[in-house]
Specification:
Blueprint (H helix, E strand, L loop, with lengths): L1 E5 L3 H11 L4 E6 L2 H10 L3 E4 L5 H6 L7 E4 L4 H13 L4 E5 L4 H4 L5 H4 L3 E3 L1 H14 L5 E5 L4 E7 L11 H7 L6 E6 L20 E7 L3 H8 L8 E5 L3 H12 L3 E6 L2 H10 L3 E5 L5 H6 L7 E4 L4 H13 L4 E5 L9 H4 L3 E3 L1 H10 L7 E6 L6 E6 L20 E8 L2 E3 L12 E6 L4 H7 L2
Parallel strand pairs: 1-2, 1-4, 2-3, 4-5, 5-6, 11-12, 11-14, 12-13, 14-15, 15-16
Antiparallel strand pairs: 7-8, 8-10, 9-10, 17-18, 18-21, 19-20, 19-21
Length: 448
C-alpha cells in the first residue's frame, strides 16, 4: 500500500511510526526541514520537502498511484485543500484532519463528492474520550466493544490491591468468580509493556490491563485495590473547543458541570451556548477561586487549557484537595506514559487520538476497529472472523499466536466470551486481540 502523509508534525510522525511496522510505502511531505530531518533519523520512511497543496509536488510523489492520502498539517483549510486536490489527481482514499465540526456533522454537503473521504476531528475525539473515562471511575484507560458488551480497562495497582505478589495464574484461581483475562502489564521499574504469562507476578504500582464482559466490570475494580465511586460533579478548567465539547457531552449525560474560563468574552460566550453548565470567569490557577467554587466537593477535575504545564499543575492541585479523578490534556506525547508517576489519573493527547483513529483506515482484511492504549505501547484490534481463517482451525491454546499478542475475548451473538485455552473461535465471531505494534502483521495473518 502506498501512503502519502502531508504534515510531519506530531500526528504525522505518530502515524508514520505506526505504519513503519507495516512495511508500507510511506511518503511524508512538509515544508519544515527540521521536522523532516527528525523523521529521517527515527523512521524508515521517504521524506520530501514541499507544499502538499502543490499539484506538481503531489504528482512528483506519484499521487495517481497512491492508495491513501492523509492530510494532517496544523491548518484545517490546508488539509481540506490537499484532500480535494489529491483525490482529483487520482488518490484512492483521502483523510483530512479537521477542527470545524460542521465539516463532520453537516449532511447538506457531500464532502466525499468534493474529494474528502473522511474527516477526523481531534477535539471531538478528545471530548468523547473524556466522557468515556468519567463513566469508568476506577480505571484510567477504557476501551469498549459493541457498546460495552466487551471491555478493556487499565488501572494502577494500589497498596490495597489483593493481587500484589501473586502470579497471573494464582490471581485467576483466587478470583475465579470474576470473568476476566489479564492482557498487559507494565512494571514501574521498566517502561516496557509485556504480554503476561501464567507466571508473571503483579507488583505494587504496576499498570495492568484486563479484558472482561460487562457483567464482570463492577467487580473488576477489587483487583486494583481502588475503591469504586460514582462521578456526578465535574469541574472543567479551560473553555477551549475540547472544554466546550466535553461540557456539552457531559451535561447531556446528566453530569453536573462547572467550567472555568480565564478569557472574559469567551466565558460569556460559553455561558450563552452551554445552558446546563455553570460557567465561571476566572483563573483556574487561583487556589482561592478553586476553594470558592468548592473544588473539594468535585468528583472529577478536567484540565484542557492550551497550556500543558497549567493542565498538569492544576490537576495536581485538584488531587491535593481530594478530587478522586483527574484528567489533563497534554500537547507533548512524551508525557503520556508518566501520568501515574506524577500523580494524575489520565493524560490525553488529541494528536495521539487522531493518529489512532486514522490508523484504522489502513488496516487490511476484516479489521472492524482499532484502538490505542494510553499508558502502554500497544494496539487493540477487533476482527470479524471469516470462514476457514486460521484462527478457526484449532482451539486457542493450539494456535501459534506470537508471544507479543494475546486474545482478549470474542463477541458471539451479542455476548462476550473469554478466550481461555480450550476455547474455539468460530466464523462470525468478533475477536479482540491485544498486541504490540511490531506483531500486527503476524496477527492479521491468522484472520485471513
Amino acid at each position: 500500500m502506498k501512503i502519502i502523509i502531508a504534515g510531519a508534525g506530531d500526528v504525522g510522525f505518530h502515524l508514520a511510526k505506526l505504519l513503519s511496522y507495516e512495511s508500507q510505502d510511506i511518503y511524508v511531505i512538509d515544508l519544515d526541514s527540521d521536522k523532516l530531518s527528525y523523521l529521517d533519523s527515527h523512521l524508515d520512511v521517504i521524506t520530501t520537502k514541499g507544499d502538499a497543496t502543490s499539484i506538481k509536488a503531489l504528482q512528483d510523489l506519484g499521487i495517481a498511484k497512491t492508495d491513501l492520502l492523509i492530510a494532517v498539517t496544523d491548518s484545517q483549510n490546508t488539509n481540506f485543500t490537499i484532500a480535494v486536490i489529491g483525490k482529483k489527481l487520482g488518490a484512492k482514499k483521502t483523510i483530512a484532519r479537521i477542527n470545524n465540526p460542521e465539516f463532520i456533522k453537516n449532511t447538506e454537503i457531500n464532502f466525499k463528492e468534493l474529494g474528502m473521504d473522511f474527516a477526523i476531528s481531534p477535539e471531538e475525539l478528545a471530548a468523547k474520550e473524556i466522557t468515556m473515562l468519567l463513566h469508568q471511575s476506577t480505571f484510567n484507560d477504557s476501551i469498549t466493544f459493541e457498546d460495552g458488551v466487551l471491555n478493556m480497562v487499565g488501572s494502577t495497582l494500589s497498596s490495597k490491591s489483593p493481587i500484589i505478589n501473586y502470579t497471573v495464574q494464582q490471581t485467576k484461581k483466587k478470583f475465579s468468580e470474576i470473568d476476566f483475562i489479564t492482557i498487559a502489564v507494565k512494571h514501574t521499574n521498566n517502561s516496557q509493556t509485556v504480554i503476561p504469562r501464567g507466571d508473571t507476578i503483579f507488583e505494587l504500582g504496576d499498570e495492568v490491563y484486563f479484558s472482561c464482559p460487562s457483567k464482570s466490570l463492577p467487580k473488576l475494580h477489587t483487583l486494583t485495590g481502588i475503591e469504586d465511586f460514582v462521578i456526578n460533579d465535574v469541574m472543567i478548567l479551560g473553555g477551549s473547543k475540547i472544554g466546550e465539547k466535553s461540557a456539552r457531552k457531559l451535561c447531556q449525560e446528566k453530569f453536573r458541570v462547572k467550567l472555568i474560563e480565564k478569557d472574559k468574552n469567551r466565558a460569556f460566550n460559553l455561558a450563552e451556548k452551554l445552558e446546563n453548565t455553570l460557567v465561571i470567569h476566572g483563573d483556574g490557577r487561583d487556589l482561592e477561586l478553586l476553594e470558592e467554587e468548592n473544588i473539594r466537593e468535585m468528583d472529577a477535575f478536567i484540565a484542557v487549557t492550551g497550556n500543558t504545564e497549567t493542565n498538569i499543575m492544576s490537576c495536581l492541585v485538584a488531587k491535593s484537595k481530594g478530587v478522586k479523578k483527574t484528567i489533563a490534556l497534554v500537547e507533548n506525547m512524551d508525557y503520556i506514559n508518566i501520568s501515574q508517576t506524577i500523580g494524575i489519573d489520565t493524560l490525553i493527547n488529541k494528536k495521539l487520538l487522531a493518529a489512532s483513529e486514522i490508523f484504522k483506515h489502513v488496516r487490511k482484511g476484516e479489521v472492524l476497529a482499532i484502538a490505542n492504549l494510553k499508558h502502554v505501547n500497544a494496539e487493540v484490534l477487533e476482527f470479524n472472523v471469516k470462514p476457514n481463517s486460521k484462527v478457526t482451525k484449532k482451539p486457542v491454546k493450539d494456535i501459534k499466536l506470537t508471544r507479543n499478542a494475546v486474545f482478549g475475548g470474542v463477541i458471539r451473538n451479542g455476548k462476550a466470551l473469554m478466550t481461555f485455552g480450550d476455547f474455539q473461535i468460530i466464523a462470525g465471531d468478533k475477536a479482540v486481540v491485544f498486541c504490540l505494534p511490531e506483531s500486527i502483521n503476524e496477527v492479521e495473518e491468522l484472520f485471513k
